[in-house]
Design goal:
Layout lengths: L2 H11 L3 E3 L11 E3 L1 H20 L15 E5 L8 H5 L2 H4 L1 E6 L6 E3 L3 E9 L5 E12 L7 H5 L3 H10 L4 E6 L7 H4 L2 E2 L13 E4 L3 E3 L9 E3 L5 H5 L2 H8 L5 E10 L14 E11 L4 H18 L7 E5 L11 E9 L2 E12 L1 H10 L5 E2 L10 E2 L2 E8 H12 E6 L2 E6 L10 E5 L6 H13 L4 E3 L5 H11 L3 E5 L1 H6 L1 E6 L5 E5 L3 H8 L3
Parallel strand pairs: 3-13, 7-9, 23-24, 23-25
Antiparallel strand pairs: 1-2, 4-5, 4-10, 6-7, 6-8, 11-12, 13-14, 14-20, 15-16, 16-17, 17-20, 18-19, 21-22, 25-26, 26-27
Bound molecules: glycyl-adenosine-5'-phosphate (GAP).
Glycyl-adenosine-5'-phosphate binds next to β14, β17, β20 and α12.
Length: 520
Amino acid sequence: MDSMEKIVSLCKRRGFIFPSSEIYGGLNGCWDYGPLGVELKRNVKQAWWDDMVAHHDETASPAGAPATFSMVGLDSSLLMNPKVWEASGHVGGFSDPMVDDRETRARYRADQLAVFALEFVATDGTVESYDEVLFAAPGEIGKTDPAELFEPHRKRIASLQKARQGRNARPVGIPDALQNDAVRMKVIAPGATGPGTLTAPRAFNLMFKTHVGALEDNSSVTYLRPETAQGIFVNFKNVCDTARVRVPFGIGQIGKAFRNEINPRNFTFRSREFEQMEIEFFCRANNSAQWYEYWRDRRYRWYIALGIRPGNLHLREHDKDELAHYAAGCADVEYDFPFGRSELEGIANRTDFDLRQHMQMSGKDLRYFDDQETNEDARRYLPHVIEPSAGADRGTLAFLCDAYSEDEVGGEPRTVLKLHPRLAPIKAAVFPLVKKDGMPEKALAIYRSLKKRFNVYYDEKGAIGRRYRRQDEAGTPFCITVDGDTLTADTVTVRERDTCEQTRISVAELGDVLGERLGG
Ligand code: GAP
């Protein structure tokens, strides 16, 4: 089992994440969070909301902020007037290039189907190229392990190798091969018996269409939102008029988004239904570059503060030619998932593009009015926008992957989730050492009193070592055990998950000690 398979298996076994509607065979790209998973994901969202919105103190902005600013929240509707998506550009341009295999009926995203020719390398280094027939495999040239690219064509490549006295074969990527009809006709798709079965790429709009009301005609079409951001832009004026906010300020929102992804994959990483945590931060154009850097760096630090190992997290600034035509800057926070380095969050300087589009389409004046500005020309303006846009499911998956570890305790292997205490689904488990001598009664009393403050768990079944292991797999930071001394001295042992160290603590102090160790 590779490490991703182990994580997926742990998620299923311990009730973090299940395939959606599994008893009917599931639905590709949709996932359900079980009892532990829902707590973990809620904690991720709560940490984001607390750190970015609710407990953001505008009178004492974090160090490095160019000025004080306020943050407010929003919960906009998921279905909106379809004009929103025309103005935002999603109706016209939110698409991926899709190719179909006429023989196997498989469907691929053209940019995620690597097309390669072969080179055969002799021991003396001479290279022989082979491009009479090209091969296609899910993945990206340069990013995907060549062994994985070869896998769907193993037999055919082996026979070509044999004909060349076993010389080493290596893939040579052919960019944009599927766009070119003549080249595409030479490509063998995975599972196809011969070349030429792939269709030309065509644009596939990722929005889920639906109808509002009883009539299913064009007049009733709308879309499940593919991002939460537009709900913020269309409420910009409402928030300005009611919340007494002054530029610079930000609006944060957490909510579901839907995309009809061509190829959902890598567990929850690319899903069709997922949650976003987005901020639209409104500022003046002349200091938007400064705010962009501020948010980019702050968002990167947020993941580290919640326990992601710095070596696994990267900030990737986009090249100029990668930027959307309206964007003045964009960076991705990327994480080294077991399946490769991939985007967790994007931070973009979107200029005034979105507000301008909505102002034009709606005919409403969305300019901000600065009543303290003395220069008449500068009093009304469209703010520029910095957008840190994170995925709650991708974040949750990254925290799970980073926390997953295997070690040995007392000569026995154990699996442990070293989750940050703020994220851990269960904060502490309470056990009676044995199920007699009044220990269960005492342990239950402790459990009930802690339950008022923390998400704690009670377990009296099985050997104590087994109970510890179960909590290690659930990521529970502390296990509290009631033993013989508890009954005489009113103390318990508190075992720390990562070190397995045990300390004795008086029952009277337990709640406060736990609160302190969990971070308040
Ligand atoms: N408003 C900007 C926006 O939506 P995006 O890069 O398309 O930008 C932002 O999405 C974040 O949403 C991504 O970085 C990712 O964390 C999450 N996300 C996007 N598509 C996703 C999918 N199919 N499954 C899970 N998360 C996704």
